[in-house]
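To whoever picks this up:

The parser on our side crashed when reading a file containing two proteins. I've narrowed it down to the boundary between the first structure block and the second sequence. Both blocks are reproduced below exactly, byte for byte. First block:
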Amino acid sequence: MLKGMLFTFGLLIGVITQAQECPQLTYPINGATEVPVNPTITWNSVNGIFGYLISLGTTPGGTDILNQRSAGLTNSFTPEVGLPDGIPIYVTISMFLENQQLLVCQVEVFTTVEVTTPPTCTSLSDPPNNATGINVDTAIRWNYAPTATGYRITIGTTVGGSEVIDDFDVGNVLEYRPQEEFPLDQDIYVTIIPYNDIGSASSCTPERFTTGVPTVDCSLNAPLNDIPDIVGICAENLPTVVTNEALASGFRWFQIEADGSETLLSESREVALEDIGRYRSEAYNNVNEFGSTVECSSSKEFRVVFSNPPTINSVQVIRQATGIRITIEASGGGDYEYALDFENGPYQDSPVFENVPDGERMVFVRDKFGCGTAQRTVERELTAKNFPLFFTPNGDGINDFWQFVPLGGSGEINVEKIFIFDRYGVLLAQIDPTSQGWNGNSNGQPLPESDYWYRAISFSNKEIKGHFTLKR
């Protein structure tokens, strides 16, 4: 009774026309009955418009089936999942006109056939049956089964298997994406059962597709892990932050226990360490293939030791034919490297620098693990402060020798030659700046108390003169 009343009302509306030319249904024509539930709805073409919209409903002007779906400039439309059976379907065509508001045309109506049988089986459209190399995150799509009002889907990795999805009702749609990714390199079997109010399709055959085979070469995609074999942490500044500079998607740091087990410390580029022992650094890149993520990692085990800032004990300077030779003696218990003139280097492992030009130099000693840098000036200007004002060579073990004195207890010897004269300019002795010094004798004989003069020459040929007193 209700269906008949709606149909009659639809016919009355169908005779109302708009002043503006509107298209009319050509299939199904207005008032048609027993229309299949999967029709291609067509209407006559209208010139000079910019596009059509179509709405479908179960009431006059309703949009509960389709709400202003664009048909472009095509004067036809096929509902993707069909239409309800045995009821009037109201059709509203709207048109886009130049410089005008949307023109909504008169409502037309047709009645679908009463379905009395279950739907037939459908088939996969994407991926198609027997497809290979499919992404593991793919969506399953299938073709519309005429008269179907819903679908149940079963997915497994064997024929008849259901471990992925088991007889799941997805409703009246033609696509489903499982929540979990499919496994790589695996046959996937899909069974889709259409149904309607009468019943379900029977004897539907499973279809199959195969996910992709991973081909990622991790030897080409793993990051370069350049963590050294030994990492020093500063005993005076704990914890010490260690950084992995590799270009990578992610990082992991582990502490290796005495029994070989590992404890995860960090999953960032940096880790704060305060204990010596064995550790492992892991850097990895994520590579996407077939919709799955493959992790390519590189791992490096290293040992953590305590380190300390350096102390420069002395700097020895020796003149050679091709320049001066600088030897740095440093202590502190760390692993050190050495640079000349510039704090930022370049640094070298050897504490010896050969063929260095004359002149004032600055030497740097740096802990390789970042625990500090020491520096010292080499070849300072000679001053009278480098030479004692008197000495007492009386054999009591105190001030028995006269010699060049490095300033500040640095041990730096920046003088190459020292000559000693009497008041008349007679050369009495030449002493080696690295020896004990002058004992107050000349030709094996002790000289009397008096003032004596010296002339000292540096490695850079700078000269200084002065005098001192010999006391007995």
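<<boundary where parser fails>>
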Amino acid sequence: MDTGLAGAGPAGTSAVRPPYQAYKRWLDTIPADLLARRRLEADLLFRRLGITFAVYGEGGDTERLIPFDLVPRIIAAKEWRRLRRGLKQRVRALNAFLNDIYHGQDILRAGKIPAELVTRNEAYLPAMQGVTIARQTYTHIAGIDIVRTGEDQFYVLEDNARTPSGVSYMLENREAMMRLFPDVFGAVRVAPVGHYPDSLLQTLRESAPPNCDEEPTVALLTPGVFNSAYFEHVFLAEQMGIELVEGNDLVVRDDKVYMRMVGGLKRVDVIYRRLDDAFLDPKAFRKDSMIGVPGIFQAYKAGNVTLANAVGTGVADDKSVYPYVPDMVRFYLGEEPLLQNVPTHILRRPDDLKYALEHLPELVVKEVHGSGGYGMLVGPRATKEEIETFRAKIIAKPEAYIAQPTLALSTCPTFVESGIAPRHVDLRPFVLTGETMRVVPGGLTRVALREGSLVVNSSQGGGTKDTWVLEDEISDIRAGED
């Protein structure tokens, strides 16, 4: 079979990367039409399982199937160890930063971050000032978006410290690959990911308040069926064996949180919440919230329930704060960052603004509060009209934007209509913080299926891949813990 894997090497080369060589040997032995047949089977499988996502702001059917690519993204064991160390370091610094800004604010007084970027940030919640939480852990589940350049350097594209999504697709992608190509896992030694729900549940239990029962009760709080990630909420609750609840399933009595059960009320110690801060408690935040739990924030402040992730974590993944994360690593840990940021122009700075306006056709410009690939300009792919429209937006409100160069991103072999061809990818590994830190070996790989596209978001036409971390004979990859 002509695999087309000559594009699996570094940018500008035709060599097959060493991690892909065992996979290529297996791929060369399969019938030429097998991938096409298996792609149809994968589509049917994902539709039957209901693995879709919602697209807001569009007419017609807003439920879409996320395209699943059959060619895995493969990472060598040595590369993964290096990446894992950097991920853990970064999340430790982010947790230290969040604890600091809601207590002593040492980093602001030291002038390492402009105070107004934090205290005037819409994600900063003054109500959290001075609140003590279990283990001083704010982001129990972090999703760190990573890109890789053609020179094999990893860069952090953004941090997701609030309610990172996508882990269900990581797990289902592996399940699909094992169903569709069971024999390949005999030819390639791949680290498992199926233990993630158990690791997540253990992390949540470790994060329980000190005054709870010996076996903490954990529940997953969802906004409901209309949320774009509802499939994931159902999936994770089932996999962990915990109750999936909505706001009206919970009640607060004497600053403690209870679930309404058939046999009466049952206390809840840890809530893995998948709704935004503003809607969490109508008594504390938005009074018109119909999906929150009245009084839950007071129970949280009293130390009687753990919310994961913590309230107010959005400051840590704001794109205007992102450029300062390497400084957080140095300030809190006394270490040099193992993972670098993408070079970033902060457009609230006059010099950065001037540079960006002069080089818009070369840059990627993002809203500091944007997500999902919306509200951004990809200069090299934009029309003159789109560039000028964005220029006006930036001039009107420069503090709302950052700009980054379009890096020479690495590509990954991808099965498209013309065969196997290179496409740009990113990676979202998931870092869990409880008594220990755990990193599932791999993560969610998103792929820009359109030729030449740099935007991998599902809402913008991107797809997903199974992510393989190769094991070696002395690997400590399975545990993923310190």
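After patching the parser it read the second block fine. The radius of gyration is 23 Å. The CA atoms of residues 161 and 167 lie 14 Å apart.
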